[in-house]
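Kindly review this protein for my students:
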Amino acid sequence: MSYDISQWIIKIPVLLFAITIHEYAHGRAALAMGDPTARDLGRLSFNPLPHIDPLGAICLFLFQFGWAKPVPINPRYFRNIRKDTIIVSLAGPLSNLALAFVAGLFIRFFFLPLETYCEFLLYLLLMNIGLAIFNLLPLPPLDGAHVLENLLSPQAAQSFRQFGRYSPFILLAIIFLDNFAGANILGIILTGPMKSLAHMFAGDNLIRLFHVVR
């Protein structure tokens, strides 16, 4: 775990931007599906402060893993609850992939061998890809769980919701095993897809980027 101040000066704004866009996208998609809850509670905002969860921020600094305050959603406003819930759930991860794609375009076509510039693009690329993939894991309360639950039959969804009671403990166990026992469970799950998407977005200049950022 690195506490290099120069790295965190870049990491923190990038991460705040990533989680703000993620939560804003959920709220905006919900509004498009007819749910004004996030807008009415002031969560449809590009200001990161309403989206910060204090405990999630503390965990970010301690374990390099954290979370934002979920945008409130009321499915009773949706016309088609299952379909609209899937759309709203996917909006957050897709917004992060869109940011990563933009970072990849800059790496491909506007590459400059300047360390700070390259660090910013690298974190923008990898943090957004990592946030998107992590949130697509089918573990409650992550976005992927809401997608899977609404793809399952009602009976299977009920069983999945019962399993979801234990999911936060599973996530915490994985985090502690990764940080204190070197299990690297999340690394094994995330690293392959992150590398593939990063190269797809940034192209061969991704290697040059790593040479600049040491």
Remarks:
- Residues 115 and 214 are 9 Å apart (CA to CA).
